[in-house]
From TrEMBL:
Pfam families: Aldedh (PF00171). PROSITE patterns: ALDEHYDE_DEHYDR_GLU. Keywords: NAD, Oxidoreductase. The active site is at E263. One of its GO terms (molecular function) is aldehyde dehydrogenase (NAD+) activity. Belongs to the aldehyde dehydrogenase family. The keyword NAD applies. Its EC number is 1.2.1.3. This is aldehyde dehydrogenase (NAD(+)). Homotetramer.
Length: 505
């Protein structure tokens, strides 16, 4: 047993990886899935895969629990989420370290991920007293009109490997205070952090005498993933993952008139103007491109630099990249851990070759690191223009640097990709900054000035346009997707006037 699991008070991880009404479901015939440490290739633990029979049982129970949970007053639902946030606070370090161990992000980022879970719980507690609808003035005398928000139903949450627990929490904390129950299918690349999170949830829900609120079904893409997509019992599917899979998810769920919340790929750019504070810019670029080994949806993949300062920016980046220590993500000196799988390493190598064949020149990096684990060098490639390879999202630490002549040209390059997640500009000129943020500026869901593309706070709505899927989760009014809106008109007069002045009979 890994010591982190002991610290998390987890006695068995493979006694049953599905959680239903009565707790972990024992299945002696279940197949087992290895949780692999990407730094060593070794198995950390094994978890049980969910069979179709177990899946059906879990969803039945999740649907049944919704009938009770929807009637619990929202502030009381918030009280449970407050306790979940506190339980996460108590487990901040071991859960964060487990995220680093299984996913490969460095310890500070693993702990930061759990901190995000805590932050969204805090947000959701406040929200539980603020699920506000509007009132409207009726055109009919003696009538009152308003809208209210009701719980939607059991929600399916399918998450990506790179934020193995935070993505679940952005959905789960809001869905729970909105009165929904939910089932989670995590990435098969990060099942152990999901099991650990479920253990924490179980203790909190048991203290509240609640069951069937949070359920977990770990399984392959068709047995569990496909069933979730097609399941009429789940009115909303929140999907986080690649645009390729997201496109299929969108049409499949729409085919049964289900709703989707899509958080898909990004191809995020930073623009560097000649008047930028380069000290800030270099720090923002390095964190954005190298952090999480380039495996964030908001990672900086494209750097658009004014032609007058491109040589200086590249020289400074080269020096900064030489300082990046690569290795064990749990070691305090490490700044970059491994990629998630050997296939990701292979993909990165192929993409670098392709970018060079399209006219790119290698500034630094480009190699894999021999030995155990999926380690690569962070890589910078100078491109003469934005080529076919550059417009694709590669989930690896590759930064393409492209020159531009003026801000209009920079915005045009920035927007000429299929994705629309995050973007930023470094400038000290107010007019340029405002132009970038205007309706004719960045076309992304996130646009920043003098900070990088990654590292969003939970208070704002998170998501993007075009092939990023259009969904928004986390802060602002993202909660509305987890509820159904109802418009109510009440007649308190003695008459029955019709709308639009219609006379009938
Ligand atoms: P992925 O698309 O390979 O997998 C995402 C999830 O979908 C996993 O749980 C996977 O098992 C599941 N899945 C795959 N095929 C399926 C199928 N046929 N039916 C049902 N489920 C299926 O993505 P990934 O490699 O885990 O994550 C990286 C991608 O996710 C990147 O493109 C990244 O940009 C994106 N991402 C986006 C956001 C965002 O908020 N926009 C956040 C994190 C990651």
């Amino acid at each position: 047993m890994n010591p982190l699991l002991t610290k998390l008070n987890i006695e068995t991880v493979n006694a049953g990886a599905c959680f239903g009404h009565d707790g972990w479901i024992e299945d002696s015939t279940a197949e087992l899935l290895d949780s692999i440490n990407p730094s060593t290739g070794e198995t950390i633990a094994q978890v049980q895969l969910c069979s179709t029979a177990t899946y059906d049982r879990v969803i039945d129970e999740t649907a049944e629990s919704f009938k009770t949970w929807r009637s619990v007053p929202a502030p009381k639902r918030g009280a449970l989420i407050r306790d979940l946030g506190n339980a996460l606070r108590e487990n901040l370090e071991p859960l964060g370290e487990l995220v680093s161990l299984e996913m490969g992000k460095i310890r500070a980022e693993g702990i930061g991920e759990v901190q995000e879970m805590i932050d969204i719980c805090d947000f959701a507690v406040g929200l539980s007293r603020q699920l506000c609808g509007s009132t409207m003035h009726s055109e009919r005398p003696g009538h009152r009109m308003y809208e209210q928000w009701h719980p939607l139903g059991p929600v399916g949450i399918i998450s990506a490997f790179n934020f193995p627990v935070a993505v679940w929490s952005w959905n789960a904390a809001l869905a729970a205070v909105c009165g929904d129950t939910m089932v989670w299918k995590p990435s098969p690349l990060t099942p152990l952090t999901a099991v650990a999170t479920q253990h924490i949830c179980n203790r909190v829900t048991a203290d509240h005498g609640v069951s069937g609120l949070f359920s977990l079904t770990i399984g392959d893409n068709e047995t569990v993933g496909g069933r979730i997509l097609d399941d009429e019992r789940l009115p909303l599917i929140s999907f986080t993952g690649s645009s390729k899979v997201g496109r299929m998810v969108a049409s499949r769920v729409a085919g049964r008139f289900g709703k989707t919340l899509l958080e898909l790929g990004g191809n995020n750019a930073i623009i560097v103007e000649p008047d930028a504070n380069l000290d800030l810019a270099i720090r923002g670029i390095v964190f954005g491109a190298v952090g999480t080994a380039g495996q964030r949806c908001t990672s900086t993949r494209r750097l658009l630099v004014h032609e007058s300062c491109i040589d200086e920016v590249i020289e400074r980046l080269k020096k900064a990249y030489a300082q990046v220590s690569i290795g064990d993500p749990l070691a305090s000196s490490t700044l970059m851990g491994p990629l998630i799988t050997p296939e990701s390493v292979e993909k990165m190598t192929g993409v670098i070759e392709q970018a060079i064949s399209e006219g790119g020149s290698l500034v630094c990096g480009g190699d894999t690191i021999e030995g155990q684990g999926n380690f690569v060098q962070p890589t910078i490639i100078r491109m003469p223009v934005q080529t076919d390879q550059v417009i694709e999202e590669t989930f690896a630490p590759i930064l393409y640097v492209i020159p531009y002549q003026n801000i209009g040209h920079a915005i045009q390059i920035q927007n000429s990709v299929p994705q629309g997640l995050s973007s930023s500009i470094f400038t000290t000129n107010l007019l340029t900054a405002e132009r970038f943020l205007s309706a004719t500026g960045s076309d992304c869901g996130i646009a920043n000035v003098n900070i990088g593309t990654s590292g969003a706070e939970i208070g704002g709505a998170f998501g993007g346009e075009k092939e990023t899927g259009g969904g928004r989760e986390s802060g602002s009014d993202s909660w509305k997707v987890y509820m159904r809106r109802q418009t109510n008109t009440i007649n308190w007069s003695e008459d029955l006037p019709l709308a639009q002045g219609i006379q009938f009979g």
